[in-house]
Records
---
Amino acid sequence: MTAIKIPTSFNIDLEFEAADLGQRFLAWLIDWVVRGVYITIFVLIIGSLTRLFQEPAMMVLFFLVIMLPVVAYPLLFEMFMEGQTPGKLAMSIKVVGLVGNVPTTSQHLVRWFFRIIEQPLFFWAIVPVMSILRSPLNQRLGDVVAGTIVISTKPRGSIEETIFRDLSASGYQPQFPEILRLSDRDMNKIKELLDRALTGDHQLAERVANRVKEVLKITTNLPDTVFLETVLNDYNYYTTVEK
């Protein structure tokens, strides 16, 4: 597998394994098996209803119940399963943004649209295969345009070990804009001290919280650990979501 380094806004590279052609093909194959089972079941059901509906109604029913869900299958699953389909889940791979975040709705839509010309059934899979082989991040054409990559769900460096938090889809509302006066190094130190404080060192949490409040001239009644967590979340919001 190809190693992918995803830069964060905190001067820390997260290393992931890029999904290779074999994994992606097997995931695609599994997804088509799932769709095949779905099609078979509903073709049998609709076939049993032929005496109840006229041909135009049957065509509409076939389109709405079978064709539309099958075509929208990858889009819907990747949107609601945070970048995975049943096939990707089985192969332990997923779609993420270029900074390791959950892809946006527009990114999912772009990837899905480009599937029209990238299906292995067309052009003998030349388009996606050549794109993946030539891309340093193993991206197919849809990934390149959408700004996404497909990675293994087993990262080399855990994102939990950094101060990165994905707030892109949470509707998070920041509380302390003053936090931007601190640097990446300051935030990493706060994260390190907070982790130590959460093991039971409440006095450490109090000292760190008071120091941050003093430097930034912040007044709040939040508990010390909650305040520090909010500081980290706010910094993530202002340096990633608002960009």
---
Amino acid sequence: MKFLLALMILPAVAFSAPAKRVYSEEEFIKKVNEEVKKKVDSIKNKSVSDLTKELLDKEEKLRIRELELEKQQDSLKVSDNDIAKRYAELSAKQKDFIGCAEKNNEESKGRIGQLVEMVSNMKPEKAASVLSVQDPEIAVQILQLIDAKKASKIFNFMDKDISAKLQKQYLQMKK
């Protein structure tokens, strides 16, 4: 029975196993070179396609970055123009303000000049009573522009506290 079983399995094994082929050394080298070439070509093809895809991806990223930079440049140009415009507006307003302030200073000097003339024409006693109730800063400006002898007489007729206060301001103003 074992013999019969062996006879049945032997032909099946004999037909199913591939026959080993024996290669000469030249045939073996040739076959190995062909297989290596196939592998290298598949790697090359795969690498080239991967490389191409990678290059295209990088090119797309660079294009997107370039667009972003262009947008930033446009934004900066708009900002620069906006800043220049605002600076021009601010400069114009500043000139107007300075002009207005200078005009007010000139008018104030004119009014102070009129007061100086009025106080200069008053008697020292009357001038002292007028300047005693006047705003100290204005009083000091008036006294500064009046003749020194006239100013000293006016100080003599003022209340001592007010006179001391105005003299102190007068001295600080001279510095």
---
Amino acid sequence: MDARVDSRVPVDIKQKASKVLADHGLTISSYIRITLTSVANDGLPKYWGIPNAETMASLEEAIEDLKDSKLKGASSYDELEKLLNE
């Protein structure tokens, strides 16, 4: 048995999406079916930009670095260039 998936979107978004999909021979239902099947089989697309564990670790490291009161800063390009060349 198939499961039903419901979602609420603004009317104008539904109309625009329906037109774009129809231009490609698809319905909203068929597009949702294709998308959910792809996510189920292959995971989220890479272009979604959801941070992976490595990216999250890098962000957390940067946040910790910013907490360091000894962290040097620059208020101009010249100052920054000087710091980077030390």
---
Amino acid sequence: MDILRIAAFSDGETGGNPAGIVIGDALPAPERMQAVAADVGFSETAFAAPAEHGWRVRYFSPESEVPFCGHATIALGAALALRHGDGVFALTLNDAEITVEGRREGDTIAGALQSPPTRSAPADPELVTRALSLFGYEPDDLDPRIPPAIAEAGAIHLVLALAKRQRLAEMDYDLDAGRRLMNEAGLVTISLVHAETPQLFHARNPFASGGVLEDPATGAAAAALGGYLRDLGWPHGGAIHIVQGEDMGMRSLLKAEIPPEHGSSIRVSGTARLM
């Protein structure tokens, strides 16, 4: 089995979130995909095979299947561009139909995905209390302009906005406790963000549900955040830029373009590099 390793949402020729990419004539059995993802050890490995109208795609973390993964989608777009030339590729996921674009630009590849539809709702106060306790945060650490929310764009995230960048940098938690919380609440990640300006965010994404302490770049969470900010009436000006992974030494850059139509797809873009 040929496994490509591509870092998505890179900062030029460094950073980004590594993903495994497997492209074959048919998808392996689910247990085989799960075993390969565990062996690769990245936060996600994407498996793709030709389908009637594009590509059938499934995503696996080291411990579980996830319905949608943004950085692995960008990495897949890069792999398809390398194999088939620049273009926009139609992807059929378990629960959605999306597209990914891949275009070669020197040593890196520009990628852009169109997310599944978005939605958001206020977070349950008990869940917020448990999440704050997990990270050792207090209610006063939260930014009142961006209330805690459940946000979706193909995967479910708890969004917690912190008022101070330093508190984001100090993020720490117990992996097993985080796994229990996320699995019980049906969360893929907890999206911790800080708004430096209305259009520039810093983010960290604990991914204990997949057995990963933290993702250095999370396209699905970026899309969900964009949808939530639109629902909130945040002055995003049509797009936000997200810096993620900086506190891990894996600085990653994401852009989320936010059209005005409520619930519509978010375009998340960045670059990818071969590893």
